[in-house]
Amino acid sequence: MKFATTPALVTSTTELMVPFNDLDPLQIVWHGNYLRYCEIARADLLRKIDYDYPQMRDSGYAWPIIECQLKYVAPARYAQKLRIQTDLIEYEYRLRLSYKLFDADSNQLLTRAETIQVAIDFQTQEMQFSSPAILINKVKSWMNETTHG
Question: pTM for the complete prediction?
């Protein structure tokens, strides 16, 4: 499993506390919940560039995940504070994000993940082989504001 080594174009940080209902019988976070944590962090990053899921829908595109990787390093436990660093790695042809889940207090890396999404036109149901202009413009606008703002 190989994770991105490309520098992030946009970075977002999300904090959350592990709820009781996310635990498995061994009292650690069930593995599927790490992807849900990534979803929460991804939405935070998308809001940062002003292209969250409602804006995606309104622009006429769905963005299904076509690939995901998850590498478990250490367990997360009930009431543990997590910090998730989400990095936008690619956006011109697909939306590729990298995630690092840390213990918020000790900074111990718990999990790494990566997701890839592509645009699907709502009307034609066709996969887009390059990202829609709206996403490209949102990312460039955010980067320009950050660099010159």
Answer: 0.93
